[in-house]
Amino acid sequence: MNYQDHMIRGAPSGTLGLATQSGWMNSEVFPQVLDHFISHMGCSIQKPAVLFIDNHESHLGIEVIDKARENGLSIITFPTHTSHKMQPLDVSEYGPLKSHYEIALNEWNLSNPGKRITIYDLPECFSRAFYKALSLENISSGFKRTGIWPINSEILSDHEFQAAGVFMIDNRTLILDVSNSVHKEKQPLDYEDDLNEPSTSAKHSTANVIDRSFSEIAAIRPLPKRKAKEPLNHVKGGQTLVASLLQALLKKKMRLRNRNKNQKPCARRPSICKSEKTVLKMRLKTHIFCLTIQVMKTLNLTMI
Fold first, then answer.
1. What is the 3-state secondary structure of 94-113?
2. Residue 30: which residues within 8 A CB-CB, separation 6 or more?
3. pTM attached to this predicted model
4. Percentage of residues of the chain with pLDDT beyond 90
5. A single GO molecular function, which one (predicted)?
């Protein structure tokens, strides 16, 4: 897909525009994103910097690692399924950004009645939301709430990292060392040999150790099961309620029948007597219909 400059018309200053066939980030365009970041960050070997990103495959290419090492940039990736807790953008930025972006879209529609918004109008709306949401307070709050800065290792508990262990192979942790551009395998600690050692032992540090003894995500968060519907024969009180409704219906019918028998015929006004009879029949039919609906609702039946 060919990128055109008018695609980011009205976007925030310094915006980098890229285009892919799928619309998602890939390993072909991410090196350009890293170049854009390095140019604005001004990092180098003498002035190192740290970049926190998720561990998407496009972020871990050889070209990316070499470029980061050459410019003194250390890359730290978040464990799988933990970005909603550890990534500052997810914690304090995306929520306000979505709210302000929705407001900007509504304002555009009000300011342009009868017009249809296009993808070329979105950068301008996003720019309004960008400057309102990405304030200094929100950015600082994101790093503080995730424990990145000021450093707070106790802000997240160990069980919040358990989902990442499902995707580890052979109970091993892969560590990306940008300085050496190699992958090292860290073997899990043998806790059985250290049960008798004091907690202050310097042999092993358990500050960054994550328990990866399970292999199924269902062990962390069991999948919800659909509650089976009870059969109609086992409805509590169903038969008693039906019997009472039918009994009330029969009593009502007998009462109306006796009322018609005891009523004296009206010879002078036959038309009035006939109309009263019709009204009584309609009331009886209406009452029977209402009782039938109640019985069907009780037994979870539907009308055909």
1. HHHHHHHHHHHHHHHHHHCC
2. 58, 59, 61, 64
3. 0.55
4. 44
5. nucleic acid binding
CA end-to-end span of the chain: 54
Q: Residue 167: name the closest of 285, 18, 303, 57 by CA.
A: 57
Rounded Cα distance between 39 and 37, Å, is 5
Nearest to 143 by CA among 52, 234, 213, 60: 52
262: amino acid identity, one letter: N
Question: Tens digit of pLDDT for each residue in 84-96?
Answer: 999 999 999 999 9
| Rounded Cα–Cα distance for residues 54 and 77 (Å) | 5
**DSSP code at position 75:** E
With beta carbons less than 8 A apart as the criterion, state whether 247 and 300 touch.
Answer: no
- Tens digits of residue pLDDT in 50-91: 999 998 889 989 999 999 999 999 999 998 888 999 999 999
* pLDDT reported for residue 193: 45
Spans of all domains in the chain: 5-154+274-299
Asked if the model's pLDDT at residue 47 lies above 60, the reply is yes
